[in-house]
Amino acid sequence: MATKSRIRGFRDESPAGRRALLAETTGVPLESLDVLASGGLSVEQADHMIENVVGLLGVPVGVATGFTVNGTDVLVPMATEEPSVVAAASNAARIARERGGFHTSSSEPVMQAQVQVLDVADPYGARLRLLEAAGELVRLADEQDPMLVSLGGGVRELSVHVVDARPGRYIVVHLAVDVRDAMGANAVNTMAEAVADRVGDIAGGRTLLRILTNKADLRLARARAVFAAGPLGGADVVHDIVHAAALAEADPYRAATHNKGIMNGITAVVLATGNDTRAVEAGAHSHAVGAGGRYTALSHFEVNGDGDLVGTLELPMPVGLVGGATKVHPAAAAAVRLLGVSTARELAETVTAVGLAQNLAALRALATEGIQRGHMSLHARNVAVAAGAAPEEIPEVVERLIGDGAVRADHAAHVLAELRAQHA
Known about the structure:
Radius of gyration: 25 Å
Shape: globular
Number of strands: 10
């Protein structure tokens, strides 16, 4: 675990220099972090992970600094192609640090599997028969993963639902399974398949789907933080952030972009640690649909008695530390080691804290200078590189693009040609 998350001069170093500082700060051996320099994955390794492999796609991995989570400093690896994400998360973490950083909690790591039953003559009678046989079905499911059970996991509850759908009425059995430090998809899918035939016999119908649900609403992670009014820009900025967040709560058009800002941080950490970004995103967005069936903001912001901003975030977080790419991908393993978490719940809570930090950073930008100024400043480097600027030419091209207020490919090409003519 990192002993400090604010590293002096970190952003001014080269990538190799940053890795050396991380090794010195965290105690993680430098050779373990050097796999990040190449992406950590060979084509041969990739060929064993998915089918029809032809190559690799690199994604930049940065490290967000300044995070304090539950009193412990944390350095956060983030994999993303979008400029400003890592810097924004770091800046929000620095502001939160003044009031103690982020405080988190989570529920047990429970995932659910569903078994769908068709053509049941007496669905309500079948529901009760299945509940009467719950003990038998739970034992059958747990027998599929004795290792999980030995670690304290396994089925926690069996529930039965009658679902009215367009073609007719279905019985759907839910297995709620504590998957411990796994993401859990393989475990719950295996259990669902194992009990399906017996479920069909008891219900008197034909089983069809036997698979997990990514609406992981029994596996929630929460983060809260107090952001001091002064560093945010004062009381007016605090109140404008509250108004911006309130629009996301009330308007699904704004909520979609608001939640996307949260996921900018969450997805980056989930990807860096080799977890399933699609599962996390599906769970988050389904959770954003409230009891009334309306899509809304995942986070909330309010002003406390001291005039500071309080931010809270709660959402499903199905991430794990065992199985999948987390163990197979060397760069993901390095990212987990750098993060310093030892349980899936710790990982889930840290990821959620990053999501809240990212959200605050975006809202602050929207409430002050607008989102484009900081974003376009970083985007200008990508535009300069795409225009063909050499490393030594990039700073001057970027300065011109920003100064002219025209961060565009055509203008970058014009500026580059003009600079080269001047230096010829």
